[in-house]
Amino acid sequence: MNVMNGERQNTMHMRQWLGLVALAASATSVSCGAAGEADGSQGGEPGGSVAPARVVNVEIVIVQPEPFVEHVTVTGEVEAQRDVSVTSEETGIIREVLADKGDTVREGQPLARIDDRLLRAQRDQAQAEASLTRETWERQRRLWEQDSIGTELAYLQARYRAETAQAALRVLDTRLERATIAAPLAGIVDDRFIEVGSQVSPGTPVIRIVDVNPVEIVAGIPERFSGEIRRGAEAQVTFDHLPDEQFFGRLSFVGMTVDEQSRTFAVEVAVANPAGSLKPGMVARVRTARRSLVDAILVRRDAVLRSEDGYIVYVAMDTGERQIVEARRVTLGASEAGRVVIGEGLEAGDRVVVVGQQQLASGDVIRIVRQQGDR
């Protein structure tokens, strides 16, 4: 019994001793691992080695001052430069229609004729009256001026009757001319309101003519740009249904008042339309110059990153031994076509990171794989 108890005690002592040995070995391993981490050595590699610094591949652009034009784009509508409803100036029956919808007419071309037989008869009567009174006055004048026959009053009355008859003749001549309804402008007949046999009177619409070369693009520009939009400024006009075509013109009109409902002021752009592809009522986009900068610093919009207190760009710096980046706080101005004006924070010659900037932090080491001028 004593022998068995002695063996058990020896076994327990052996287990305790083995446990202490294992604990000491574990502590030694942890201590060595911590030391390796502290001096940069890597476990499992005799002697260790220093971990290499992170290097980010980037592309940069050297920024230089350049001209910049800021534009404003608004929606407009096509209108005919001239849209006229031709009306009758005489009373009568339409005897002849000389133009139809879709016809191209020139200025002064006859469009329709009113039955003028009664007017012609009245004109012939007036012609005879004018001839008689003229002859009477001439004879009375000779008798009075050469022979002193008659009275001055009779002479004056004869002259008055002759002049009145001549004026009546001119009135009838004018009315006969107006019996032929003529085009007041060149253009296209867009509508016709009469037929042969229609009764017309002064003011009755007869034909509508539109002049669509050039056309007017009418748009409204927000009032906040009122001090920057000038008459004569260049404008670019595009249409969704004509994606491959661009039209150019100048602002022919800039309104002086602001619409109370839309808070915009009107502008008009005259655009050549020789092919007639632009129709009144079509919706257009008008892009016109707002202001110009002579020496602007511009960068690609995606090179600018948002920070907690504004915007930054990364600028490459040469330390002599290596290239690093510096986070530069910037203020932004106008943007257009994927580029933005930098108000403050950059100078000419700065090398701005435009590819790889999302992976950077200030002070990072970089490898420049491509360098170019700003385009």
Break the fold down into its secondary structure elements and pairings.
Blueprint: H1 2-38, E1 55-62, E2 66-87, E3 92-97, E4 104-105, E5 110-114, H2 117-147, H3 152-178, E6 180-182, E7 187-192, E8 199-200, E9 205-222, E10 234-239, E11 242-254, E12 264-271, E13 283-296, E14 298-300, E15 305-307, E16 310-318, E17 323-336, E18 339-344, E19 351-355, E20 365-373
Parallel strand pairs: 1-20
Antiparallel strand pairs: 1-19, 2-9, 2-13, 3-5, 3-8, 4-7, 5-6, 7-9, 9-12, 10-11, 10-13, 11-12, 14-18, 15-16, 16-17, 17-18, 17-20
Helix pairs in contact: 2-3
Distance between the termini: 99 Å
| Poorly predicted segments | 1-51
Oligomer: single chain
And the CATH topology of the domain at 72-80 and 210-294?
A: Elongation Factor Tu (Ef-tu), domain 3
Q: How would you characterize this protein structure?
A:
The protein is an alpha+beta fold. Among the domains are: 91 residues, conserved putative lor/sdh protein from methanococcus maripaludis s2 fold (Beta Barrel); 94 residues, Elongation Factor Tu (Ef-tu), domain 3; 63 residues, Helix Hairpins. It is 25% helix and 43% strand. It contains three helices and 20 strands. The strands form three sheets. Strands 1, 14, 15, 16, 17, 18, 19 and 20 form an eight-stranded mixed sheet that branches. Strands 2-9-12-11-10-13 form a six-stranded antiparallel beta barrel. A four-stranded antiparallel sheet has the order 6-5-3-8. Strand 17 and strand 18 form a beta hairpin. The protein starts with a helix and ends with a strand. The N terminus is likely disordered.
